[in-house]
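ok so i was messing around last nite and threw this chain in just to see what happens. nothing serious, just curious
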Amino acid sequence: MSWTENETGVSEIIGAIILMSVLAVAIGVVGVGLLSQSPAQKIPAVSVDITAMNNMLYLRHDGGDSLSKGEFNITLDGVDKTDSFNSFDDPSGWSTWTTGKTLYYVIPSGQNVPASVQIIYNSGIRASLGDYTPKIITAPYAIRMIAGYGGAPYTDSSGNVWSAEQAYSPGGWGYVGGNTYSTTATISGTSDQKLYQTERYFPSGGQYNFTVQNGNYEVTLKTAEIYFTTPSQRIFSVAAEGTTVISDLDLDAVVGHDTAYDKTFPVTVNDGILNIDFIKNVENPKISSIQIVNA
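result:
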């Protein structure tokens, strides 16, 4: 064998060794890269029931993954309305949407129920979690509440159920301001004592607000003078949707002390909220119970 042939063989061996080393390094680099890659991000799955009733849109979480506020958007007919949704379960401000919880949106006056409600995941990646058409529920509106009362629901002599009052929050109903007072005295002129034995009174005037669908309603106010015993000690007026429906009412003069007084009147709502204002003339205006039904 000549030196030239020997050198050629050695060169081929060295070349093969270098090539194998390069391949080994390359395989290692690829392997490290594959191992260091994050797994594919999981897109949450959620089941949602969406209904519309009166001027309210309800999104109920019916199962699946929890969603934190900020990691998803709610669009109505393509417009992002996430920040306009509130929660009955977390009235002070919701942070997580979990199974069983309902988000609600107050549909502005003059606007129709959205044809499309889309829930879009936006944390890391953007993906649609569902495109829904709300189920529209047409149901008669009826609310019956007892002012100044915080007990269990009360069923009256006609079978109607009356609830305890609550403070008003957007999208709901309730009082704005005022204080409470009650009596155990028998109220004349009624077989439903609980509807007249408690009250909410307003030292500087006050109101009750009810979120309703635009339309016509029949409102009944129930009260009794359970504090003052002679005429002219309490005189007040009431306005509904800005129109006076009771003027200068003196209960002691009209029906007497501890005696039931009812007033029913029609109201038309065009702005999605039925406002009942109690206006001070002499002493504090007051109310014991309120009923609102479709006209």
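not much to say yet. The domain at 46-137 is CATH 2.60.40 (Immunoglobulin-like).
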